[in-house]
Write a structure and sequence with these properties.
Layout: E1 12-13, H1 19-50, H2 55-62, E2 65-66, E3 75-76, H3 77-102, H4 109-134, H5 139-142, H6 153-163, H7 169-193, H8 200-218, H9 224-241, H10 246-255, H11 269-293, H12 300-309, H13 311-339, E4 342-343, H14 349-359, H15 364-374, H16 379-405, H17 407-419
Parallel strand pairs: 1-4
Antiparallel strand pairs: 2-3
Helix pairs in contact: 1-6, 1-7, 1-11, 3-7, 3-10, 3-11, 4-7, 4-13, 8-9, 9-10, 13-14, 13-16, 14-16, 15-16
Function: Na(+)/H(+) antiporter that extrudes sodium in exchange for external protons.
Transmembrane segments: 33-50, 70-92, 112-133, 145-163, 175-194, 200-217, 224-240, 284-306, 312-335, 347-374, 386-405
Catalytic activity: Na(+)(in) + 2 H(+)(out) = Na(+)(out) + 2 H(+)(in)
């Protein structure tokens, strides 16, 4: 007889996880919320600067080249942000995903099926909408089919922080896990569909430093002066192979062990690295990338309207707003329908609707895929940026309305948990005993 997770009654979706996981997720969300605020600030500065009389300075800064030409790493600052800094972002996402499925609440297939299905639905429907709206625009436009499939967790959490909603921990955990799975699927899409030319020799050579990195971390080596050069060489070789260099971040993350040795104190190595690199990812890597990627010169109101009228921008915007909402909400309903599970006590489908709208906030990875699909500085890339900005903003506004309406209800749920907390600070609902097998 299987035993359900403590505090999670059988036959429920969005039930409470274990208390250690809830606390850990809370710490992650606080870090991502700060990063989201910096991300928003960087995007606003880029937009204002790109539409000011000093727009040429902004463009020149992004096109400034830096790096050794002999190693084919004389990249622009914009390329360093997209290829280099985002590798850190995907390294952290890979660590989080591996930890969730190895040691987190999602090691249970029963709990993992919901966010995985929601992520798949939230990527499939936006892509179909984009393709439908661009079917008559030619093959070049269809290259952007994956742009509206991504969810930006930092941006979404920044919205939650601004509207001060008391969203229950189970829903926040679901949103974070959905976004992490979303990121992994996005990196698979980038590797498979946006690799223009593949050079096998550097890719095979990259396996050597990657294997050595994996061997050291499996032996619990934490010395940065050993690991960082191996990671850098792996990244450089993957970059030289033609595969997008951010793939290296995920590959490196998957080699890091999650579980600590029985005799060793403290967190596992994956959690240790995540704690070290998440501030760098959320507060530096993503905001800097957003600064270089979000600056689109719209050319006044007429230029903005003309750009949004392009089928590419329209497909991205509608895909993010309608596609993400229908995909996430529909997949969640299907899981509930076929498993005959019920929503956890105190939650309703309006809450799932609000989360699905938040999933339509695509930014970081959407902008990255837009550049890969159409090229840096291309007209359709600029239209893509308009679609991403409009779709994300509309999704954020609609999610704000729905979640603010439900906020008083969330406050009441939170008050019950805090009232039931013992002297140890752990709410009673997380201390339910496991039934005997």
């Amino acid at each position: 007889m299987t035993t359900p997770t403590p505090g999670t009654p059988s036959g429920q979706i969005f039930g409470r996880g274990s208390w250690p996981e809830v606390r850990r997720i809370g710490d992650i969300l606080r870090a991502e919320t700060v990063g989201g605020a910096l991300l928003l600030g960087a995007a606003v500065v880029a937009l204002v600067w790109a539409n000011s009389p000093w727009r040429d300075v902004y463009t020149g800064l992004g096109e400034f080249r830096l790096g050794p030409a002999a190693l084919h790493l004389d990249l622009t600052l914009g390329q360093w942000a997209a290829d280099g800094l985002l590798a850190v972002f995907f390294f952290v996402a890979g660590l989080e995903l591996k930890r969730e499925f190895v040691a987190g609440d999602l090691r249970s297939p029963r709990r993992a099926v919901l966010p995985v299905a929601a992520a798949l639905g939230g990527m499939t429907v936006p892509a179909l909408i984009y393709v439908a709206l661009n079917a008559g625009a030619g093959g070049a436009a269809l290259r952007g089919w994956a742009i509206p499939t991504a969810t930006d967790i930092a941006f979404a959490l920044a919205v939650l922080g601004v509207i001060s909603t008391h969203l229950p921990a189970a829903l926040r955990t679901f949103l974070l896990t959905l976004a992490v799975v979303d990121d992994l699927l996005a990196i698979v899409i980038i590797a498979l569909f946006y690799t223009s030319s593949l050079h096998p020799v550097p890719l095979l050579l990259a396996l050597l430093p990657l294997a050595l990195f994996g061997l050291l971390v499996q032996r619990r080596v934490r010395s940065w002066w050993l690991l960082l050069p191996l990671a850098a060489v792996t990244w450089a070789l993957v970059h030289a192979s033609g595969v997008h260099a951010t793939v290296a971040g995920v590959l490196l993350a998957f080699t890091v062990p999650v579980l600590r040795r029985a005799e060793g104190p403290g967190p596992g190595l994956a959690e240790h690295f995540e704690h070290r690199f998440r501030p760098l990812s959320a507060s530096v890597a993503v905001p800097v990338f957003a600064f270089f990627a979000a600056g689109v010169s719209v050319g006044g109101l007429s230029g903005f309207v003309a750009g949004l009228g392009d089928s590419v921008a329209l497909g991205v915007a509608v895909g993010l707003v309608a596609g993400k909402t229908v995909g996430v909400l529909g997949a969640t309903w299907l899981v509930q329908r076929f498993t005959r599970a019920q929503l956890a006590e105190g939650l309703s489908w309006w809450d799932v609707f609000g989360l699905a709208l938040l999933g339509g906030i695509g930014f970081t990875v959407s902008l990255l895929i837009g550049e890969l699909a159409f090229g840096v500085g291309a007209e359709r890339t600029e239209h893509t940026k308009i679609g991403v900005l409009v779709g994300s903003l509309v999704s954020a506004l609609l999610a704000t309305v729905v979640l603010r309406i439900r906020n008083r209800h969330y406050e009441n749920l939170q008050a019950v948990e805090e009232r039931d907390a013992d002297a140890d600070g752990v709410p009673d609902v997380y201390q339910a005993r496991r039934p005997e097998s």
